[in-house]
Amino acid sequence: MTAPPTAAPRSGRLLDRLRTPSRAARVTHVQEVAERPGRTVAWPGWADPEVLGRLRAGGVESPWEHQVAAADLARSGRHVVVATGTASGKSLAYLLPGLTAVREGLAAPRGRGATVLYLAPTKALAADQRRVLAELAVPGVLAATVDGDASREERDWARAHAAWLLSNPDMLHRSLLPSHERWSGFWRSLRYVAVDECHAYRGVFGSHVAQVMRRLRRVAAFHGADPVFVLASATVSQPAVAAGRLIGCEVDEVIDDTSPRGPTTFALWEPPERTATPGEPDPGEGAGAAAGLGSRRSMLSETADLLADLVVEGVRSVAFVRSRRAAETVALLARGHLEQVEPGLGGRVAAYRGGYLREERRALESALQDGRLLAVAATTALELGIDVAGLDAVLIAGWPGTRASLWQQAGRAGRAGRAALAVLVARDDPLDRYVVHHPETVFGRPVEQTVLDPNNPYVLAPHLAAAAQERPLCSADLAMFGPSAAELVDRLERRGWLRRRPSGWFWTRGDRAADLVDIRGTGEQPVRLVETSTGRLLGTVDTAAAHGTVHEGAVYLHQGESYLVEALDVDEAVAFVAAGDPGYTTSARSVSEVSIVSTDAEQCWGEARLALGTVDVTSQVTSYLRRRPGSGEVLGEWALALPSRQLRTRGCWWTWSDQQVAAAGVQPGVLPGATHAAEHASIGLLPLFATCDRWDVGGVSTALHPTTGRATVVVHDGHPGGAGFVERGYRAARAWLRATRDVVASCGCPAGCPSCVQSPKCGNANEPLDKQGALRLLDVLLSGA
């Protein structure tokens, strides 16, 4: 590697620089995405002249057709979703009518005039939109951000003066709606609600946000407002349907992207077979990262190498990874490579992820904007919610869960119409192996539809309680919240949370109903990380992940620094850590059991049975392993005394009869490993058939399940009440399980590896597993499908 040149090469030549002779075999497919010209139209006659002048001064001489089409619909009072590609200017769909309405409201003889509420899934994205408004500086438009970082003084000023309020669904749920009477002036004048990146609202989180939107509409109506919703989304299937489900109203869609786009070179990249190279860093992607022969080189090591090479070429880049730890790891490895090239060059790379404090986030965002940072490793495209102009390359470390997410992340490069490079670096697991060897799954199929279920009783019940505290519920309100609302209100009344009076249902408890639920889906407060010696708050970890990542004895990475967890206080939701590198990494082990509560649907595949229903999952982290960083060698296992966690959710399961097991030639001693391997492979392939991530679902397998009395594999949603993922899997079971079988059969390893049947999230360290037994069981299962 050499020092950075002054200009980045074009995408095709850049890929050639990465695809050296020793790496050529790692590229399994290259797709050239053609350049697209733009189509402009005249500005609409209703737009405020001052707004148009500021937009032109900001470089927007003429709008794209889709921008005006969406803005016209919003101006006419129609709810609208604009679902076009990354960097297609979707924000103008709400900026133009919103800013115009605020300007028109300045002439109101009294009162506040029109107001606009902007909602983003991340603080970073809201902060970036605040910067856009500040740069436009439209006279009379007073904007303010109200989120968890805002001080009391900032909130008070916003409540009294802001016409354009930037926030997020979390703050709306916990503060703006419960305190709506204090914000009456804002709500009374509300004309538009802008919902940015609305494709992010899927699964349980999306279901919670859908109910928050219904509460928003109800509160606005109480204050006499009927706002128009303008939603911006990445390209998804049936955006009007998804947006309508999100806000609970009919929505028009604008989907013809008329913005220009530079050519993009998209490569699928498979890391090579692992070689026993002494001292090579093992980033700890899971148990499969050190699985021995048949395993491929770590995806994170490969991504870090490529990111370092891009920095050396002077290419502005982002590497999207799947977890906070992975972001820290990729940045740390890339910095190490770069320091060997030129001292100080490693400082051009950083990690960007959730869990950082406000000051850290703002400093990183500023460095990205002004070019001091040349590359970042970020957890998701939405967490990197700022508009970083001029990116040339995107590395996507592992299949992001959906084709919509893949194209959203890839679209971060080439934002100014320049040529772009996108590289999907495969993880060593069944899904990624399938994708890089079947490019038609990426390039030959439409993107997915967003999945959410606002009627999930675990989601709906706390929002009915919150709505009752905001304003007593009446019978006419229940239709807004969905068909299950009446039954759940009766249930809340029997529990003593609501009391019915002639005027409706009232909240009866002394605490805040909004505190009953965390809309991010955990239902619990995050665990704080506190440095023991200083009392400094380092950041937070989701409660659901805390038992496995910040247990006593765990090694935790933060901003490239290593910390050892000294204690985890489960009751107080705090982990105490001390800086230091103990010379090993850690990974947790757990046990799980699934009991079947009820069966809602069932089909017979010959003697095999496939079913869908409600299940109870009990899991417990029981111990952790210490591993040597270079080789992944296990140094020992330490027991943990953590409480078990219970989850009632939705599950899909299939069973084999004793005769089928015998016909498959699977002996009793092999059967647990065979079902276990089939479970892992099926979970790995589910994201191709349901809009989910591998970490959104779980599973259990057994040679003899107490309820079914058979060899059974259960795959379940990882959220209370379910998220709709396994239901999609059940409907697509034949295609899902056939793809699972094909991946296992086509993998060349003799006994199973992360590319087929090993799982990076297995709580039993991938033991026992029997690849050949799983293949025979899947063959027997599919023979009756």
Write up what this structure looks like.
There is one protein chain. The chain has 785 residues and is of the alpha/beta class. The protein contains 25 helices and 27 strands. The strands form five sheets. It has a seven-stranded mixed sheet with strand order 1-9-14-13-10-12-11, with helices on both faces. It has a seven-stranded parallel sheet with strand order 4-5-3-6-7-2-8, with helices on both faces. Helix 15 packs across helix 24 and helix 22 crosses helix 24 (733-746).
Short overview:
It is built from 25 helices and 27 strands. The strands form 5 sheets. Strands 1-9-14-13-10-12-11 form a 7-stranded mixed beta sheet, with helices on both faces. Strands 4-5-3-6-7-2-8 form a 7-stranded parallel beta sheet, sandwiched between helices.
Poorly predicted parts: 1-9, 276-282, 284-294
- Number of helical stretches of at least 4 residues: 25
Largest sheet: 7 strands, mixed
Shape: globular
Q: What radius of gyration results from the CA coordinates? A: 26 Å
Q: How helix-rich are the residues, as a percent range? A: 25-40%
- Structural class computed from helices and strand pairing: alpha/beta
- Can you list the strand order of the major beta sheet? 1-9-14-13-10-12-11
Beta-strand share of residues: 15-25%
Measured between the Cα atoms of the first and last residue, the distance is 54 Å
**DSSP strand count:** 27
What is the residue-averaged pLDDT?
Answer: 87
